[in-house]
Write a structure and sequence with these properties.
This protein has about 500 residues and is α+β, with helices and mostly antiparallel strands. The chain has three domains: about 45 residues, Cytochrome C Oxidase, Chain J (Irregular), CATH 4.10.91.20; about 250 residues, Catalase core domain (Catalase HpII,  Chain A, domain 1), CATH 2.40.180.10; about 70 residues, no CATH class. About 30% of the residues lie in helices and about 15% in strands. It has 13 helices and twelve strands. Strands 1, 2, 3, 4, 5, 6, 7, 8, 9 and 10 form a ten-stranded antiparallel sheet that branches. It has a two-stranded antiparallel sheet with strand order 11-12. The chain is globular, with a radius of gyration of 26 Å. It starts with about 35 loop residues before the first helix and ends with a strand.
Length: about 500
């Protein structure tokens, strides 16, 4: 192995690494020991702010390979031809959990992908669930506050969690998934991923369709039961991280099949549910899955902090041929994600190697914390100017956006879209087997049993009404587990 000289951060070779400079053998330390100050000052700053959400994660590099032609839907270069391969980086994570959380906490899992395409970096930032708890970004911070620590006790608070969910019946679909065994996946390799939101695709003819992205694990679905997840928390809180490292290290590279659902503008008008509502799914029967390609992860980063902790994903990073939709949660994330990265990593976070586009980047952004590129050298930092030869390419001009209305206002998110119960009911009856349904009830009862305080009965009864509206048997079983008596005529709690 090639020998390297020990140096300061500035590159000066340094010898006295073990001992501080002092006034004699037992005397006080001297201020001029610059390396002591450099080392301690750096140590004090080793921890960057923790992500507000998705704090604990696992990352890996890999490739995406196109297996099917979807050029009829999109002109995105990543899908240009069958066989085309694109380098990528993936980060999986807990959503509400902190960096010290156990990997098997009951929580949704983040499923964030960064594709390094010739047309720029494309970030697809979703979860292991096709839906989410809320449909309007204005509720996001309040929802996350209920999942974090109570401002008084600094402990997790089931009362706050279920109070919020009971007051927001749109959460029911995601709550049902979370409380099933899908809320405790065995590993990141054994779960599906979803873009969750509705996006758009534009082809070379300028025709637009709406799409949803799916990633089906080729390792097969594997989940923990609630008890197994709790046992693993005490046995190995880093079980999922270790699983990914060991799998890739042994050559068992995990793979996922990318598939899309497609909906036309005409179908949007006639669809039963709002197709831009992230608390709903699209019927696979009406909108079948279309094969696109294979994602393979085959390299663990050499340094976790450099690549995983400093990785930054943003739904705002789209490429030519892929666009947004009127999904209100997606629209909010377009703003909030890059803003979170600028706070946590600095305004130049996209210059960090794991986030950096490997192809040409030209703009007039200059200066700021951690400017590590050429900072534009001597080129003008304004536009228009008479000196550079930077041009715009009209072929990348985005299509016009057809607005639903020319009236701006605050509209009820549930207006003409208040069916929060049909899809959760279908999930319970059709997507879960008998054992899954039993585990779902057990997990819900265990969680709701933690509700305390003077509002306990009110919160429990309100949430029970949601479960009954999704499925009568589901409501009955949960009520029995909570020892709540139900009026058989009205299916309402009696509070007696």
């Amino acid at each position: 192995m090639e020998q390297k000289k020990l140096t300061t951060a500035g590159g000066r070779p340094y010898v006295e690494f073990e001992n501080s400079m002092s006034a004699g053998n037992r005397g006080p330390l001297l201020l001029q020991d610059y390396f002591l100050h450099e080392d301690l000052a750096h140590f004090n700053r080793e921890r960057i702010p923790e992500r507000v959400v998705h704090a604990k994660g696992t990352g890996a590099f890999g490739t995406f390979t196109v297996t099917h032609d979807i050029s009829r839907y999109t002109k995105a270069k990543i899908f240009a031809e069958v066989g085309k391969q694109t380098n990528m980086f993936a980060r999986f994570s807990l959503v509400a959990g902190e960096r010290g959380s156990a990997d098997t906490e009951r929580d949704p899992r983040g499923f964030a992908l960064k594709f390094y395409t010739e047309g720029g970096n494309w970030d697809l930032v979703g979860n292991n669930t096709p839906v989410f708890f809320i449909k309007d970004a204005k509720k996001f911070s309040h929802f996350i506050h209920t999942q974090k620590r109570d401002p008084k006790t600094n402990c997790k608070n089931p009362t706050a969690i279920w109070d919020f969910w009971s007051l927001n019946p749109e959460s029911l679909h995601q709550v049902m998934i979370l409380m099933s065994d899908r809320g405790t996946p065995f590993s990141y390799r054994h779960m599906n991923g979803f873009g969750s939101h509705t996006f758009s695709m534009i082809n070379k003819a300028g025709e637009q369709v709406w799409v949803k992205f799916h990633f089906k694990t080729l390792q097969g679905i594997k989940n923990f039961t609630g008890k197994e997840a709790n046992d693993m928390r005490g046995t190995d809180p880093d079980h999922v991280q270790r699983d990914m490292v060991e799998a890739i290290g042994s050559g068992a590279f995990p793979k996922w099949a990318m598939q899309i659902q497609v909906m036309t503008h005409e179908q949007v008008k006639d669809y039963r549910f709002n197709p831009f509502d992230v608390t709903k799914v699209w019927s696979h029967k009406a909108f079948p899955l279309i094969d696109v390609g294979i994602m393979e992860l085959n390299k663990i980063p050499e340094n976790y902090f450099r690549d995983v902790e400093q990785s930054a994903f943003a739904p705002a990073n789209i490429v030519d041929g892929i666009g947004f939709s009127p999904d209100k949660m997606l629209q909010g994330r377009i703003l909030s994600y890059p803003d979170a990265h600028r706070y946590r990593l600095g305004v130049n976070y996209e210059q960090i190697p794991v986030n950096k586009c490997p192809y040409d980047v030209t703009n007039y952004q200059r200066d700021g914390f951690m400017q590590i590129g050429d900072n534009g050298n001597a080129a003008p930092n304004y536009r228009p100017n008479s000196f550079d030869n930077v041009v715009t390419d009209e072929q990348y001009k985005e299509p016009i956006v057809i607005l639903d209305s020319n009236i701006g206002g605050w509209f009820d998110r549930n207006e003409n879209d208040d069916d929060h119960f049909t899809q959760p009911g279908d999930l319970y009856r059709n997507a879960l087997n008998d054992q899954d349904r039993k585990n779902l009830v057990t997990n819900i009862v265990e969680s709701m049993s933690g509700i305390t305080g003077e509002k306990r009965n009110e919160i429990i009864n309100r949430q029970l009404c949601h479960f009954f509206r999704a499925d009568q048997q589901l409501g009955t079983d949960i009520a029995a587990g909570l020892r709540v008596k139900i009026d058989e005529k009205t299916l309402a709690p009696t509070n007696k």
